[in-house]
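Course assignment 3, question 2. Fill in each field.
Student: A.L.
Task: Predict the tertiary structure for the chain below.
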Amino acid sequence: MAERRMFSKQIIDSDMFLDMPVSAQALYFHLAMRADDEGFLNNPSKIMKIVGANKNDMDLLLVKRFIIDFPSGIIVIKHWYIHNYIQKDRFKPTVYNEEKLLLDCKENKVYTLRTEQIDLFSNDDENNHVYSLDTQVRLGKVSIVEDSKEKILKKKESTDIVKHKYGSQKNVLLTDEEIQKLKEKFSNFEDLIENLSMYMGSTGKSYSSHYLTILNWNRKETGNGKDSKPIEKNPYIPRRNRQPRADETNSSE
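Answer field:
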């Protein structure tokens, strides 16, 4: 096995590499220095202890895909052949053939798992290199990048739900589904919405879910989750904002 190793500025001068903590960068250099002639090594934990690195540094290298790990504990330097070229008379093939069979080496000299479709470091053209995120499953484990993408998609789906404005103040926000549930549950759902609208308008308060607020108010007032009391007895509306009922007018009129 060759004793000398080289590092390509194409990789170590990239923003993705330089944005990592110095400890993670140092770990990468030490791992690459100790890898065999095809970029594999079987003792990453030992090297972490030797150089004083921690698990966060290793995890960061995995997430950013500067290294690839295998269930056996073997790792490989992803951009090994960009860094190093070893002459045939000095080259010693790796002994980790099972792990090697799980990899492809693309035309840009970058290792990638056969289950992956998008490479982290890919060539746009001869002189321009761009990064893209891995989105595939990594040897039976869902990558952190894929997990993050899933969360972003779920968040986007939740923000796509349309809420309409209700109440005299047009400040009660409810989805069509929430309105339908209120209609089915309460015969006086319009009064409940108006209660909340008037209360928020007069106090300036806000709630994260107007639907749940209506349910909670009704539960507190009735104690059984059934139809709430008529609007004129609702304690949440300031008296100055109430409209007098017909039977509350002066009997002499």
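Instructor remarks: The chain has two domains: 9-115, 164-244. The first helix runs from residue 9 to 12.
Grade: pending
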